[in-house]
């Protein structure tokens, strides 16, 4: 575990906290083999262990029992990848680090579920559904306190990676307000309203959708040349300028903030984690046509934020898009 966290030091060159946190989370997810865990399998193991009361506190033997079932299931499908005793030990260690920092030897069922669901594999929308279901009442709706519980448990993951400050700290109130304001009511929200808000990628939760894109980008190959380091084809994320035709930046150059002389940081770029479709190429071409004669001043005045900002005490974080 110590080695894993030490190995994350090489990600410090990534200037943007959402990407950096997502990349750290991805390494953690793989080390714990949770990238192999389907959401539905996790759910069925929780049911099997009768972990239905999310407020219940689970002691270490209970956590180990549940993790043993999870990793035995994973080992059956991936015998070469999963070492059950090692995975159980690592995952237990991680859960205690994240949700039992004063080492009382107990973790709330809700925390364990949110932690494991957050790093499981599966479509992002399904993940939001599973996460929401953990705090929603029987009617499938969620009040402000319940949403705060969900966000609080999720933000512990980047917090443990030393990254919470960039996501509004541990105060969930601004995020809860942002979600309910987006819905336009203050009593309860439904699943779809939560999903719609999550699609805006709110600052406190942005690391989670970015984690999914980081995973998708790992194997992506783009038939384009990086205008800075000349890598071709580009592997990983591809950033295409919406100001200049045929201007692309690879993941390494983008993360380290490298730009060429004629490209200003305020110019709009679009991120691709998978190779572009012809529809996306046409859409971007039209955007470049519109932006071609717009000045640097225009883009500084009309910034395109990459995520939905929530009020934070760290004002300088607003400048990062
Ligand atoms: Zn490059």
UniProtKB/TrEMBL annotation:
Entry keyword tRNA-binding? no
Keyword hit for Zinc-finger? yes
Q: How does it sit in the membrane?
A: Peripheral membrane protein
- UniProt xrefs under SMART domains: ZnF_ZZ
Q: Which GO terms describe its cellular component?
A: plasma membrane; synapse
Q: Which GO terms describe its biological process?
A: synaptic signaling
Q: Name one GO molecular function term.
A: zinc ion binding
Q: Where is the protein situated, by its record's location annotation?
A: Cell membrane
What are the entry keywords? Cell membrane, Membrane, Metal-binding, Zinc, Zinc-finger
The UniProt entry's coiled-coil ranges are none
Identify the main location: membrane
The name of this protein is: ZZ-type domain-containing protein
Q: InterPro entries from the entry? A: EF-hand-dom_pair (IPR011992), EF-hand_dom_typ1 (IPR015153), EF-hand_dom_typ2 (IPR015154), KCMF1/Dystrophin (IPR050774), Znf_ZZ (IPR000433), Znf_ZZ_sf (IPR043145)
What residues does the ZZ-type domain cover?
A: 221-277
């Amino acid at each position: 575990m110590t080695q894993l966290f030490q190995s994350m030091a090489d990600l410090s060159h990534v200037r943007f906290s959402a990407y950096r946190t997502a990349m750290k989370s991805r390494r953690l997810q793989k080390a714990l083999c949770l990238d192999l865990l389907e959401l539905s399998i996790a759910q069925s193991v929780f049911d099997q262990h009768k972990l239905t009361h999310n407020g219940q506190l689970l002691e270490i033997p209970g956590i180990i029992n549940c993790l043993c079932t999870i990793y035995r299931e994973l080992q059956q499908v991936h015998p070469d990848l999963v070492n059950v005793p090692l995975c159980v030990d690592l995952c237990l260690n991680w859960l205690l680090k994240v949700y039992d920092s004063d080492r009382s030897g107990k973790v709330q069922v809700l925390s364990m579920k949110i932690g494991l669901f957050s790093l499981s594999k599966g479509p992002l929308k399904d993940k939001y559904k599973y996460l929401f279901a953990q705090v929603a009442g029987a009617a499938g709706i969620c009040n402000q306190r319940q949403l705060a519980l969900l966000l609080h448990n999720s933000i512990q993951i980047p917090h443990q990676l030393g990254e919470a400050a960039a996501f509004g700290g541990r105060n969930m109130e601004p995020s809860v307000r942002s979600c309910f304001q987006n819905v336009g009511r203050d009593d309860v929200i439904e699943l779809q309203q939560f999903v719609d808000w999550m699609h805006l990628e709110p600052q406190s939760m942005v690391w989670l959708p970015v984690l999914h894109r980081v995973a998708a980008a790992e194997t992506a190959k783009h038939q384009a040349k990086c205008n800075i380091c000349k890598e071709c084809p580009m592997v990983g994320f591809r950033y295409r300028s919406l100001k200049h035709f045929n201007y692309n930046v690879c993941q390494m150059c983008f993360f380290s903030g490298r730009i060429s002389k004629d490209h200003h940081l305020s110019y709009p770029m679009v991120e691709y984690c998978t190779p572009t479709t012809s529809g996306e190429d046409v859409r971007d071409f039209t955007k470049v046509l519109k932006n071609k004669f717009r000045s640097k001043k225009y883009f500084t005045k009309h910034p395109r934020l990459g995520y939905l900002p929530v009020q934070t005490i760290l004002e300088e974080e607003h400048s990062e898009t």
